[in-house]
Amino acid sequence: MAVVTSELEVPSSVSAPKLFKAYLDFPNLAPKVEPDVFKAVEYIKGDGGVGTVQQATLVDGSTNKVTVDALDHNNLSFTSTTIEGGEWMQNLESATYHVKFVPDATNQGSTYKVSSVYKCKDPAKFTQENAKLADEYTKKTFKAIEAYIIAHPNAY
C-alpha cells in the first residue's frame, strides 16, 4: 500500500487554546461556518474523546466517518482518521490527520499545523497533487472557523 503525506501550516491571529476548543466543537461549528459544505456533523459513537466516531453529512448527501484517535488537551493537539467517505475516499484506505495548534511568542496568535497521511489503495489514483487539493480544502475550513471566532470572540 502506498502512502502520500503532506504538511500544512497556517498562521492565525487567534490564540491556540481558542482554536483547539473550537475544533473540539466541530460537530456544532462546521454547519455554521460552512453551510455550503456541511449539512450536519454528529457523534455516532462516543462523546468527542478518543474512540469517538463522527459522521459528517455533506450538502450533496454524501457522508464521511471520522475517528478520534488521540486527543491531548495539554499540547493542544489531536489525531483523527477519515475511515469512510464520499468520492475522494474511493482511492484511499484511510486519511489520518495529526493536528496541533502552536501558540506564537505572544500567546495572542498561533499556527495551525496539520500533518496528513493518506494510505492509498492505488498510488496512481491518489497523488501528491490530490494531497495538495485536500490541504486547500482543510485550509478553507480552518479559515472559516478562524473567521467565526474573530466575529464571536467570546464563543471559545
Question: What tags apply to this protein structure?
Answer:
single chain; alpha+beta; seven-stranded antiparallel sheet; Bet_v_I/MLP; 7 strands; 156 residues; 3 helices; Alpha-D-Glucose-1,6-Bisphosphate, Chain A, domain 4
Can you walk me through this structure?
- This is Bet v I/Major latex protein domain-containing protein.
- Residues 1-141 form the Bet v I/Major latex protein domain.
- One of its GO terms (cellular component) is nucleus.
- Pfam families: Bet_v_1.
- Belongs to the BetVI family.
- With 156 residues, the protein is of the alpha+beta class.
- It has one domain (2-151): Alpha-D-Glucose-1,6-Bisphosphate, Chain A, domain 4.
- The chain is 26% helix and 42% strand.
- The chain contains three helices and seven strands; from the N terminus they run βααββββββα.
- It has helices spanning 16-24, 26-33, 128-151; strands at 2-12, 38-45, 53-58, 63-72, 77-84, 92-103, 110-120.
- Strands 1-7-6-5-4-3-2 form a seven-stranded antiparallel sheet.
- Strand 3 (53-58) and strand 4 form a beta hairpin.
- The longest helix has 24 residues, at 128-151.
- The mean pLDDT is 95.
The count of helical stretches stands at 3
- What's the number of domains? 1
Model regions low in confidence, pLDDT < 50 over at least 5 residues: none
CATH architectural grouping = 2-Layer Sandwich
CATH top level assignment: Alpha Beta
What Rg do the Cα atoms give? Answer: 15 Å
CATH topology, which one?
Answer: Alpha-D-Glucose-1,6-Bisphosphate, Chain A, domain 4
Structural class assignment: alpha+beta
How much of the sequence lies in strands comes to 35-45%
The pLDDT mean sits at 95
Amount of helix: 25-40%
Tell me about the biggest sheet? 7 strands, antiparallel
The strand count comes to: 7
Straight-line distance between termini: 40 Å
- The main sheet orders its strands as 1-7-6-5-4-3-2
Sum up the overall morphology in one term: globular
Order of helices and strands: EHHEEEEEEH
The CATH homologous superfamily corresponds to START domain
GO molecular function, one term: abscisic acid binding
Family: Belongs to the BetVI family.
Domain Bet v I/Major latex protein: 1-141
Pfam families: Bet_v_1 (PF00407)
